[in-house]
Amino acid sequence: MSDSNHTSTSFFLMGLPGLEAVHAWLSIPLCAMYVASLAGNSLILWVVRTEPSLHQPMYYFLSMLAVTDLGLSASTLPSMLPLYMLGSRVVAMDVCLAQLFFIHTFSIMESSVLLTMAFDRLVAISNPLRYGTILTSPRIASLGLAIVVRSVGLHIPAPIMLKKLPYCQNHQLSHSYCLHPDVMKLACADTHVNSAYGLFVVLSTLGVDSVLIVLSYGLILQTVLSIASRTERLKALNTCVSHICAVLLFYTPMIGLSMIHRFGKRASLCSRVLLSYLHFLTPPVLNPVVYTIKTKQIRLKMLRLFHSGEAGIRHTQDQ
Predict the structure, then answer these.
(1) Which of helix, strand or coil describes residue 10?
(2) CA-CA distance, 127 to 291, in Å (whole number)?
(3) Cα–Cα dist 166/5, whole Å
(4) How many CB atoms lie within 10 A of CB 12?
(5) What is the rounded distance in angstroms from the CA atom of residue 257 to the CA atom of residue 267?
(6) CA angle at residue 305 from 63 to 249, to 5 degrees?
(7) DSSP code of 167?
């Protein structure tokens, strides 16, 4: 296929199958989710930046999580909202390839940040006296840089390899955003190399990260059970609740989607799309809520912010 044909190739996005008549109404909760994600994660970043008591490794990692959540939301937004609000289903090839690059990159970043947060909890519980000397600011910065280099470097080949493939008549995607396996299936050429590359990326990132997170919590549990005081055990475990919730929010839909693709051949397309939405859309919305509820310092800072805002409004009204 010539370069001109490549550049003119477009793909067609899909919303929730069977609910096309109410897509305009579905755009309302989707918009609400994006606004909640933007507000919640931006507020987390602002609180950590302005509160000196939160200038600690745990909250630096939380800031990284907020940044990746913002990136993940910004990656899916450009195609989902036009589809549901305006019925715009066509996406140019170059735009589609750019979108899948950012979606997969930020998804791997999120997994990597969750792994570093598990390591943070392991150090804090297993070796609290050396916590500050192990997780210094330069090391945290190095971890952040490694996360970015790893995520970006692994996904640079994806759009380049897909760009070189010829595509058949059917350009219908299965989601309302572009994903590597979805675009790859539309190629009318041998895609074994692309498939092997995709499997390698998934196993070396999400697979390795999930195993290391489980191992970290195995070591954390071993340390906690060795603590004599029941109160101290509960206190130590309570510091992990927010992170465990974030891990479950990220990995549970992904595992469910993987199981359906491999074993649930009779599962409806709608259920696959919904699980995909849960994987990409809910963590950016719920992570700030979970950390606000479970982290006392962030909760108090936000309460002070809202109280000062209410006091300012009352003062203006009294005048």
Answers:
(1) strand
(2) 23
(3) 9
(4) 12
(5) 10
(6) 40
(7) B
Neighbours of 25 (CB within 10 A): 10
The CB density around residue 63, as the number of other CB atoms within 10 Å, is 19
Which two structure tokens, joined as six digits, stand for 70? 């913002």
For the stretch 188-224, pLDDT in tens is: 888 899 989 988 999 999 999 999 999 999 999 999 9
- Return the closest-CA partner of residue 296 out of 114, 70, 58: 58
Q: How far is residue 41's CA from residue 70's CA, in Å, rounded to a whole number?
A: 7
Give yes or no for a contact between 71 and 42, defined as CB atoms under 8 angstroms apart. Answer: no
Q: Residue 133, CB half-sphere, CA atoms under 13 Å: how many?
A: 4
What the block records as the tokens of 247 is: 């891990």
Per-residue DSSP letter, 178: -
Whether 85 contacts 1, CB under 8 Å = no
Distance CA 246, CA 59 (A): 14
**Token pair belonging to 26:** 């579905």
One-letter amino acid for residue 241 of the chain:
V
Contact by Cβ (8 Å): 206, 254: yes
User: pLDDT (tens digit, 9 = 90+) per residue, 68-86?
Assistant: 999 999 999 888 988 988 8
For residue 5, give both structure tokens.
């044909």
Which residue bears the tokens 């692994």?
Answer: 154
Q: Are 123 and 135 in contact (CB under 8 A)?
A: yes
Q: What are phi and psi of 265, to 5 degrees?
A: -65, -25
Paired with 308 in beta bridges are: none
